[in-house]
Amino acid sequence: MARLRHEITAVSGKARAGRLHTRRGVVDTPAFMPVGTQGTVKGLLPEEVSGLGAQMILGNTYHLMLRPGVVTVDKLGGLHRFMNWPGPILTDSGGFQVFSLSGLRSLDEEGASFRSHLDGQLLRMTPESVVRAQELLGSDLMMVLDECPPPGSQRDYLAASLERDARWAARALAARGDKGGALLGIVQGGVYSDLRARSVELLAELDLDGYALGGLSVGEPKPRMMEVIEGTTPQLPEGKPVYLMGVGEPADLVRCVGLGVDMFDCVLPTRMARNGTLLTSRGRLNLRNSRFKDDPAPVEEGCQCPTCRHYSRAYLRHLIMAKELLAYRLNTVHNLHYILQLMAGLRRAIAENRYDSYARQVLAGLESPGQERVALT
């Protein structure tokens, strides 16, 4: 079968619902991928992640390459068997992590040299080695190596970087073996619409299996991010899935689905859970707030997740204040349930051609006055 096929089943304005056919099953889109950076969605069993509605998860090549090593994972049957996840896995190339190590890496035409953040060992990453690493992991969707330029990069730097990214993508495609997974290119160009268009032009010539929008949600103003997405998605090749990397704020998910995005990933719901912040249809709840000390209510009335069905805000606050490990599990269950149900609601609304009304309803709740805003630390 083909490595990847995206079947569009319904549209509502620019929003679209569909089915992503991978070699390990079908993923309903628009989809959110919980982040399992090191071969685990922190705190949860794979069966729990699946039971909450996740159909595909994300792993990270950089971290798995450092520990336990991709050769080790391969010898143990690949990442799916290693972590007991039978469904599709998308692996990030690790480029974002490498290029965030500004003091520990150097960049040239052939690739990137960097120091491991674990032990300082000098390592080398090239477009070819990244593809090979993802093949050893058994990834179903592989990302090309690219540079994620730091926020505020000069226009000339961004222009040169995206040209090199395209050359790297061509090398990655040439290096992929017959058993390699689908390969997705990454559109860069900062907040400049003409640079984004140039990146799309170069990557589209390669006829990759899908296209990601990178270098966003890294500090630019939110309205500008939305403008870039709105201007870029219509230029991407038809019939290919569109993946927005690293965006997981509920309101952003709703809006970006309306701009034609099919796939998302972000650490936000799981990281916030570990910090004691719960996502609800009325905004965020910071369980560290003393007003929840004696609150017998669930996180959200009507929520059918195991956390809300069995535990109170008071109990969850007690756990997080006592630094009990169960707090991280229960909070993560709720936050992932919330995000995955939000995506399911978007899919239903698109199928019924009522995306606009559904989006307005969700956003009205999330953005009502007085909602808490907690830093993601």
TrEMBL record:
Described purpose of this protein according to its UniProt entry: Catalyzes the base-exchange of a guanine (G) residue with the queuine precursor 7-aminomethyl-7-deazaguanine (PreQ1) at position 34 (anticodon wobble position) in tRNAs with GU(N) anticodons (tRNA-Asp, -Asn, -His and -Tyr). Catalysis occurs through a double-displacement mechanism. The nucleophile active site attacks the C1' of nucleotide 34 to detach the guanine base from the RNA, forming a covalent enzyme-RNA intermediate. The proton acceptor active site deprotonates the incoming PreQ1, allowing a nucleophilic attack on the C1' of the ribose to form the product.
Gene Ontology cellular-component annotations: cytosol
The UniProt record lists the keyword Transferase: yes
Annotated residues for binding of Zn(2+): C303, C305, C308, H334
Alphabetical GO biological process terms: tRNA queuosine(34) biosynthetic process
Note on how the cofactor is bound: Binds 1 zinc ion per subunit.
Enzyme class name: transferase
Residues that hold substrate according to the record: D92, S93, G94, G95, F96, D146, Q188, G215
Name of protein: Queuine tRNA-ribosyltransferase
PANTHER family associated with the record: QUEUINE TRNA-RIBOSYLTRANSFERASE
Lineage: Bacteria, Pseudomonadati, Thermodesulfobacteriota, Desulfarculia, Desulfarculales
Keywords assigned by UniProt, alphabetized: Glycosyltransferase, Metal-binding, Queuosine biosynthesis, Transferase, tRNA processing, Zinc
Coiled coil start-end: none
Pathway: tRNA modification; tRNA-queuosine biosynthesis
Cofactor requirements of the protein: Zn(2+)
Molecular functions (GO terms): metal ion binding; tRNA-guanosine(34) queuine transglycosylase activity
Source taxon at top rank: Bacteria
